Fold each of these.
Amino acid sequence: MKRILYIVLGGIAILAVFCLMGWLFRNSAAYTTSEKPVIYLYPEQEQEVSVRLDYDGKLTCAYPAYDDGWNVTAAPDGTLTDESGKEYNYLYWEGETDQEYDFSEGFCVAGEDTAKFLENALDRLGLTRREANEFIVYWLPRMEQNEYNLISFQSEVYTDHARLSIQPEPDTVIRVFMAYKPLDHYQEIPEQSLSTPERSGFTVVEWGGSES
């Protein structure tokens, strides 16, 4: 009788483990991560700037700390200074969301060609050489080892779910968010048109990405 009881209890325990693993897998798969969006501020003259992020998801990290927003003194060269006198190159955040990204248009790029592709694409999207360099240094190690990468730069699908409110209001806003999928084979996809507004006046630039 005890042996039967042990067998039954063992079976229940094994079933519970599998159910837990399935729950964890489903819930982890339901979320994508907005990785390292960074925000640069380039006012025409040194001034106080307030930045608020309305994100349809959960913030998992921010630096400097996001305390109901960021309040910094921004210089024309992009240097940011907080109330305690600490300097930053940009505002950084990451988060988790259940938002699905749009791959109806984009590019299928061989892993070994990723650096060259990003240099060209980011220039067309309006990033400076410094901004593009920081983007590529972050993403290239994760992408160049793949056989192919399916890449699509998101527009409203991203900006409508990660809304920025900036005071004083900037004259130019450039937001570059790359979603990509690692592939083991080439995939046809309609080519995406890339363009960006010309920088003028107080300019705000953001870049980030997500692996789908």
Amino acid sequence: MTKEITAALCKFIQQVGTIEEKDNAQFGKFADLSTVLSTINPVLAANGLAVIHTTKIYEDRNVLVTNLMHTSGEVITSEYLLPSATNIRGNPMHAEGGALTYFRRYCELAILGLNAGIPDNDGDFADPKISKVTPITKNKAVGMPKILDDETKEYYLKLVGTLLVKDKKLYNSLADALYIEFDFNRNKKLSENITLPKHVTFIEEWISANQ
């Protein structure tokens, strides 16, 4: 039953203020986790709500568990399998910590039904030769497109291709993650399997967390 938590969430959405985009990333302004929390936590508490993040292990992978809790005892839970920290450059502990921070922000906004106006490509990973205004964000107010257009797909295929040239091991890790996450047909090329907006969103989030 989620009657009480749903009513409280409706009040929260009406009362929460704008989550300001104060921080700089390669593709422009975005709201970091601290900004998100400082904006939403007081309003959550005022409505008897709290968001609690925990983790667990599933098949040697970290899973981020997001719990939206209400004083009535009702809870809404979502789980996200975090990208693997293997075959990465630098300290894997730092990479896992960065991934947790990155996905906590996205999962928190998602479970609350909020959008801080954050472009999905705020990770600092893009090749400088690639246009900083991507097809997926230009002339788009909020949210993701429902259909992956050819221009957007071409952009992300180039991005993945650049990764292949720079770091084949990292590319292979991304490819494996995509095949597993979306149960891609392994008899097809990776480029043939990438057909939906959620596929390119996963690519951006994965690369940002692993570079």
